[in-house]
Specification:
Layout (H helix, E strand, L loop, with lengths): L1 E3 L8 E4 L4 E4 L14 E5 L5 E7 L14 E4 L6 E3 L2 E2 L3 E7 L4 E5 L6 H13 L3 E8 L5 E7 L4 E7 L7 H13 L5 H9 E6 L4 H6 L24 H13 L3 E8 L6 E3 L9 H17 L22 H9 L2 E8 L15 H18 L6
Bound molecules: zinc ion (ZN).
Zinc ion binds next to loops.
């Protein structure tokens, strides 16, 4: 039996492999306060019962492991869940592999290969262009897909927190729908809007197997007020591009470690928040409720007090700077509790469907997007 850790986005520490496989999680690069993402494989285990005990005692979100089942795959394509138990320190699961190799991850990984394929799909379409906005700390490309020719400007960014891979699955669903030549709603959005999608804001953290930080140890979603050339060039590049285009609608797509829900967080804490933005938020939210089974608006983050929004975050900063409709989109690592699926849990396909349903939500908000 061999533990495979040299994977794209791999993260595991091997403590012991006698009888029980005891593992731990490496903290994010340059950010010891973040430790959550794991991804590894086991080789040479066909038919052999194994028990895995993952030490999660000092992870960033201890509440993440209650009611969490482990994402499991034989081929890194199809991911199903393996039931796990949590005793307050250790996440434990037992498994008998049907194949020589099996892979486990916190959520279905979205690798750099698949990212390249997503860009290639967009490049081949006559409806999209792809370009590089700048470079990450480790000089990886920050890519943007531009779709449509309309006057209204929408920006959608995903994976500021690299371990929140569901965000890039969501981006794939959104881009795929927008590139569908036969889809009426997609055509209407392409005619009225120009949509910029950044599928991966943090390619370094993704490759390194980080949960929240980039290669410089920075939480990019606290860097929007004062992005820095050394510590947060990813935000600097995207912010500069937004200043050139303007923004009428912004989505910053994330995964939530603890909450078993899909939900939106708006800009009610921003100084310039007003009735127009509140009405737009409601229109957008209502369209998602109608168009997607997983999405709900009963549960989410506590609402910010007026003026209490954290302008270091993308959602609040962009909303305030451009006086525009601006949301943080959250999806669960756990299953969605309003729509449970014990076999697969919340998975790439469901994240893609939420991304795809966003097309109708953009349409619903369209008439009021600009003052
Ligand atoms: Zn996040």
């Amino acid at each position: 039996m061999r533990i495979v850790s040299d994977l794209d986005g791999g993260n595991v520490l091997v403590h012991s492999t006698r009888d029980v496989i005891r593992l731990g999680i490496r903290s994010d690069t340059g950010a010891p306060e973040f430790r959550q993402w794991f991804h590894f494989g086991l080789e040479g285990v066909a038919g052999v019962p194994v028990r895995i005990e993952l030490d999660v005692s000092d992870t960033t979100y201890p509440g993440a492991w209650e009611d969490y089942d482990v994402c499991t795959s034989y081929d890194l394509e199809t991911w199903f869940r393996t039931p796990a138990s949590f005793d307050g320190e250790v996440l434990a699961w037992e498994f008998v592999s049907e194949q020589p190799s099996v892979f486990f991850a916190y959520f279905a990984p979205y690798g750099l290969d698949r990212h390249a394929e997503l860009l290639e799909t967009a490049r081949r379409s006559s409806l999209a262009t792809v370009r590089t906005l700048g470079e990450s700390v480790e000089e990886r490309s920050i890519d943007v897909v531009r779709i449509g020719r309309g006057e209204r400007i929408a920006w959608v960014i995903a994976r500021q927190h690299p371990g929140e891979t569901m965000a890039e699955w969501y981006a794939e669903g959104l881009v795929g729908r927008l590139l569908d030549e036969d889809d009426d709603a997609a055509r209407a959005v392409r005619e009225a809007c120009t949509v910029y999608v950044v599928p991966n804001m943090n390619p370094d953290g993704s490759a390194l197997g980080n949960q929240r930080a980039n290669a410089a140890g920075m939480n990019l979603n606290r860097a929007w007020l004062e992005p820095d050339r050394e510590a947060s060039p990813e935000v600097l590049a995207v912010r500069a591009a937004m200043e050139e285009t303007g923004v009428d609608l912004f989505l910053d797509v994330h995964g939530d470690e603890q909450n078993p829900w899909c939900f939106l967080a708006g800009c009610e804490g921003n100084p310039s928040y007003d009735e127009r933005l509140r009405d737009l938020e409601n229109l957008f939210e209502q369209a998602l409720l109608e168009g997607n089974d997983d999405f709900q608006d009963d549960y989410g983050y506590p609402r910010d007090e007026p003026g209490g929004g954290d302008l270091r975050t993308a959602g609040n900063w962009v909303g305030e700077r451009f006086q525009c409709l601006s949301f943080t989109v959250e999806m669960p690592f756990k299953d969605a509790a309003n729509h449970p699926d014990p076999e697969y849990g919340f998975d790439p396909d469901r994240a893609r469907r939420l991304g795809s349903a966003t097309v109708e939500a953009i349409l619903a908000a369209l008439p009021g997007l600009r003052d």
